[in-house]
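Worked example (supplementary).
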Amino acid sequence: MGSSLNKPLADRVQDIDGQSSMVFDPWKIRPEIINSTTEMSTNTSVTHRRRNHRLSPLEKQKMKNIQSLNFTVNDNLLQRAEFEKTTKGFHLKKTFGKWIICLFLGIIVGCIAYIIKTVVQLLQGLKFHYTNYYVSKGLQSEAFLTFSGINLLFVCLSCLMVIVAGPLASSSGIPEVKGYLNGVKVPESLGFRSLFGKIISLILSYSSGLFVGPEGPMIHIGSAVGAAISQFKSSTLGFYPDLFLNYRNDRDKRDFISVGAATGISAAFGAPIGGVLFSIEEVSSFWSRQLTWRTFFCCMIATFTSNFLLQGMGSSPDMHDSGLLTFGFSRLYLYRYSELLCFCILGLVGGIFGATFVFLNIHLNKWRKEKLKQNPFLRLFEALFVSICTSIICYYASFIFGCRYQSNIIIETSVCEDQSNTEMVQFFCPNGMYSELGSLLFGNPDQALRRLYSRTLNMFTLPSLVVFTVISFVFSIWSSGLWVAGGLFVPMMMVGAGFGRLFGQLLSLWFTGIDSSIYALVGSAAMMAGYCRMTICIVVIMVELTEGTQYLVPIILAVMIAKWVGDFFNESVYEHLMEQKYIPFLQTLPPHSTNNIRITNVMSKNVVVLPEVCQVKTLISVLNNNNHNAFPVINRGITGDQRLYRGIILRDHILVLLFNRVFYRGTGEEIYLDENFDFKQFQKETSKKPPQLSEMEFDYYESESYIDLRPYMNSSGITIHNTFSFVEAYKLFRNMGLRHLPVIDINNEVVGIVTRKDML
Amino acid sequence: MGSSLNKPLADRVQDIDGQSSMVFDPWKIRPEIINSTTEMSTNTSVTHRRRNHRLSPLEKQKMKNIQSLNFTVNDNLLQRAEFEKTTKGFHLKKTFGKWIICLFLGIIVGCIAYIIKTVVQLLQGLKFHYTNYYVSKGLQSEAFLTFSGINLLFVCLSCLMVIVAGPLASSSGIPEVKGYLNGVKVPESLGFRSLFGKIISLILSYSSGLFVGPEGPMIHIGSAVGAAISQFKSSTLGFYPDLFLNYRNDRDKRDFISVGAATGISAAFGAPIGGVLFSIEEVSSFWSRQLTWRTFFCCMIATFTSNFLLQGMGSSPDMHDSGLLTFGFSRLYLYRYSELLCFCILGLVGGIFGATFVFLNIHLNKWRKEKLKQNPFLRLFEALFVSICTSIICYYASFIFGCRYQSNIIIETSVCEDQSNTEMVQFFCPNGMYSELGSLLFGNPDQALRRLYSRTLNMFTLPSLVVFTVISFVFSIWSSGLWVAGGLFVPMMMVGAGFGRLFGQLLSLWFTGIDSSIYALVGSAAMMAGYCRMTICIVVIMVELTEGTQYLVPIILAVMIAKWVGDFFNESVYEHLMEQKYIPFLQTLPPHSTNNIRITNVMSKNVVVLPEVCQVKTLISVLNNNNHNAFPVINRGITGDQRLYRGIILRDHILVLLFNRVFYRGTGEEIYLDENFDFKQFQKETSKKPPQLSEMEFDYYESESYIDLRPYMNSSGITIHNTFSFVEAYKLFRNMGLRHLPVIDINNEVVGIVTRKDML
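After joint prediction of all chains, the assembly is encoded as:
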């Protein structure tokens, strides 16, 4: 054994100040020239509001249970030995497998979208069937009781589903997915339980008439399916088939989740390109060209599957991959240059409304978190209360305005489109007449949107549009964050279409030739951009939904302005939700306020290091005495008391080595690769749930044995010098998807370590 | 002065083998267990054809004159001192400035697109005006002479323009732009000379009837404008205004070039979203969310500007941001599920044709490079020869087939679109009749495409489509690579539309209800994907061009299949062109064949290092004796003979320090920041063309002075340990956009350096 083995085998590099205690370090700077920034200045100027925010100790504590993911390749000697043997076939097979997984992912997500849409249609059909039975008889209170009763039942079941499956099945789940793709795992967020809970809760809540949409949850569902299908294991059952072994790592899983998120939104909107762009622009933190292609393929499969099923599985030979909300196609009338100014105003309004929505919704959620906590009864009660209020308003609002004659609606004949969406809801009106608000609120949201986008001239009166906009805005704020599954896209589109059409009709009082349906469309886009701050993705989704590119310029203009205006006030709703959920999200670039910080100011000096060859009993005591997830492996150097960086090893891998009793059989400094524990075996064991230290028992002989960490540690682990600035270290950390970043000094001694939470 | 200053002041770290000569390095591996890969194995299996290819010494030599770019921030002490002073306003101003630059970029590129389109229309109009004068009189040879004479004149001028402006003004310029965005600068490629040369050459070549399109060059033009407007300097005139100082670095320039490339294609196609996706999917190697937004904004401005100008600058108040090739909108008939199989076949054909195109074009270009070299006469002669051949074929091919009755064309009435594009070319036919091939070949390509996409039933006969496809395929291959500016998008769309319509009409012989115009559309998309291997970008461009999303599934399907099939045979035409032009392009991931290589196998051990404080005469002799672009700065350590890594400094920065005589005034190891040479000054000087060493003269006192490199060297330079594998180092290099990557050993001594060319 080398002399280094007789030294104390693990030590803490504590209280080492890389700046001052070094014997030879000319990195001293005369303090009168540069003031060294010893701690984070809290009053530094920033360009963005939220970025002012520094984590409080409580928040840091709450983030503790969210584990970071290993997106880096553990490039150890075992893997290198394995690579010597791999052939062209292996890589081809792995790539081919990814495409096959994407194919199945697309089909499954498409089927789920189909099931959700069909069941929702069925449930809503039933609801309106029974309600309309009383409506047609003119029995107001019976009709209301039936309507609100069914709604209440659906919401109750939906909320119970969330209570059973856990709160992660509620809301949209986008913050959790975004978090995972950024590098942290919210426990249980992509598990089977939340998947099934979310599907059922979504079906019920969307059928219940609450102001929630199916798109957000579909993203979560897609991601969960992506995670499940690519991993294909069950830690509960201890089922780990070898077939998917090569994909069973955080990096490949992340890619499939990226694909899944895109696929979910594609299937929900019937928008394959919009889905890909959503993943690129909003949810994914890591992207590659290869991923673009696979995502695109998968989105196409999902859209096709869901359309194929919805159109009766080929029972009609003609197919139509139309958008959900066909908008009609006019070549005769478009818009004038002067109207571009109006579209800018719509963008401004969308931005302000969006920012207001974020502000109110986030504060409501904060209140919920403080008052209702995780108490299922209070949560259920709240959901039911919102349901009753929604039912009352949606039902009785229609009585404010009188009935109007269906025959008075003027249809634009120049538009090349079937105008079936001008069929309005009769409600309690006499035959041949229709109720304005009933047509918007008493029905499903898709129909309401279609009516708002319909190219007719005098379908709605101004007051009814005002009332509709206010109602949908208030209830969207209130419904988001309830313990039911539900997203925000459709409610926000309704709000936007409401004020857009209102604005268009207002304009047409003074100007001639204004087509208010275009304003409704642009308003929807502006409102969506205003609350979630996406741009190109929203534009493409609107184009795919409405099947036409004629209104590209107005939509893009409004979306860009809405985003700028919204960003002026606050950040997107997902950013705020992630903050509220204590998800440690790393933005692309660090805030400007960190410009003056050096890495030595933020790094943790409390590094526990391990020698290259380490005794079992030392390993056990080190693992027991701290909860670090990675340990730099060091060499004692010539003097025998140095901590020269050699590599880094993960706690889980040490546990696997201990569990499998992979002891060192050599003498001196040779590295042996254990034939019984080759790369395949190592990969298999590390892809399982890590063994518990408490479940392992070692006899005296075993505890005295040594384990050689060198073949298993990451030899290509990235390190930085202690001269780094925080900003450059952040970029490295973020771009490479790191989890741990050891800091070395001029002698290659480990003086600190940076983890994800130090970067926030 | 410290003791280290008396040592020899710069030395070469040569012949140091990190593997064996170290006193204390346990990284030895028993050879019988792991065979160390001492050199690149040439017979290792790879998954991709071209990746088998290793650079020959000749190729490496040719790559020498292509300099790498500095995408990393030079995070030195000066910058840190400057950051202490910067306020919120500074960052806000910088961000705001980027948006303003994008605004102007969009307007300028839009105007250029307008100018090109208008002038081309004018020139083509003149050409056909004179030719048709003789045609209408029935004078065949006079008409031909006029036609071919004008074509010849245009080609001649176009080629002369390239000869004057340099060969970089020819072809599309996409490889050069891709190269720049990947991190290397082809000299002159984005300069004013090639910009103007390209614009004029493009106008002439596109008017001349050659099978070239305007889109590729527009990408180059957009990039060059982006580079020019964001830098706003002239090294020839020595004009360096301070206003744009903050953007005058390779990193910001790169981002504006990314934006410019997207804007160019947006303006050319009238496709803002397609442009953004083109930049994301094809040309850009580095991307961020912020860039998405700016690119999107800029593309919108460019598209809007060019449409606004084309539609008569608001002379008509109505506006229409239509695609160039409106396709018509049918809701009654779409396609059947069974036809999806046919679209797959089209994808297959597109892939095979695309791969064939790449193969033939690349070999032709290789032949050109070997035989014609850079000889302007041969190049001019070739261009003229191709022009004459094109004129002959395009003119006389029409006589092969008889005339057909215009009134026989059956127009699909279910399609909601003005059918003005069914107006055919009469050529030498009697009144009321038209010439089939004349309608396709004797006119401008836009019209030909519109006719191929027109929703009519019996416009073309099968033989004429066969002849058209063959002619356009052959001439596209031949025309690409001539010394005239010209891209491939439009010619490839014509080939694809030709065989697509042919296939559709063939099918309609056996099956009823086939709409061959859809096949033409899908064929175009498949052909484009087949030659350039883009996917989502092509789909979006096709949608934006044809203004409808009804045929999304067939297009996506054909594009994906064409890409797969093409990739089976070779790589995209741009990859091959980059190889031919010796542009050292780094793919996202290294080839699998490099899995077994370690960084010590590829790194250059011939590192020239500099001490932290260095004498002027030493610096001069070091700079004179080698042509390295960066030098690791080292510390002598306690023993005085170590080479401990401290930072890295660029040659250009040393030259600036020498030129400005920034000598060290301190004693010992203190670092002084020179008040007369602060960050602003440093930034200003380094953004200029670097001073020449030969132009500097130092007296004896100056040569004996010292320069302290510490305040100017990059203290946040990334290093790797010599235990790294090649693949992980490659990822780091590629993801962080590095130019130099020093390799350190267990003692932090510099043992090697990796540059871009070592990564190939």
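Two points are worth noting when inspecting this output. The CA atoms of residues 288 and 428 of chain A lie 56 Å apart. Chain A has a mean pLDDT of 84.
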